[in-house]
């Protein structure tokens, strides 16, 4: 009977960085916690593999770390993991092999691109905040201009297709969207939302791709999981939260657990694989 099912203080579904770091915090407060993971491993969107008969570790998932990412850096320090720096072409060109596809930028082109990036940073700072961006008097003007139009009409780029190509590639890399599909306002709001602006977002020195972890990013999750109560390889089938402080969770294996609080630490795209009772609202958002 359900009355004989074990009651846990907190159940966390998902054994990625979010789930494991939450479990680590709750455990430090002596809160009885269980992490449930549908796959046979921890790590979530990080996945590190050793190349056969080699010492090299390759990351197949999330891997880059910037100097502004203080939480992950604190875990790396706590677990005595080693960081390695990105190989920058202008520092070690012989390590990266032959340039393919794009003609290398000359010094003047690099200067112009840096200047345009600096202008974007300054324009973003004109917004008092992300929340009030639409109230700024230039927002309506910026909203009807695409980033592509801005690039192609910019005096430092309008006569140089190579600069245009590089800037458009930068936009595509950082947003996964072509520059003609992005409004200038959206792009500036994105920059405004990030401390240090484009410097922190881009892949240059002190940017978002400055470091990797020498033995793979998944290793952080391995370390975090060592002292935690984790149930692997058992996807959740249903969640009954009719009783707010007595939530019933059933796994595909038939195993059941109750908890006072439930934390969903997985991609929202997986919500449809779980039967919720009552059903999740299609209109309510988190406050």
UniProtKB/TrEMBL annotation:
It holds the Pfam family Amino_oxidase. PANTHER family: AMINE OXIDASE, AMINE OXIDASE [FLAVIN-CONTAINING] B. GO terms for molecular function: monoamine oxidase activity. It is a single-pass type IV membrane protein. Signal peptide: none annotated. Its EC number is 1.4.3.4. Belongs to the flavin monoamine oxidase family. This is monoamine oxidase. GO terms for cellular component: mitochondrial outer membrane. It is found in: Mitochondrion outer membrane. It catalyses: a secondary aliphatic amine + O2 + H2O = a primary amine + an aldehyde + H2O2. Residues 17-280 form the Amine oxidase domain. Its main location: mitochondrion.
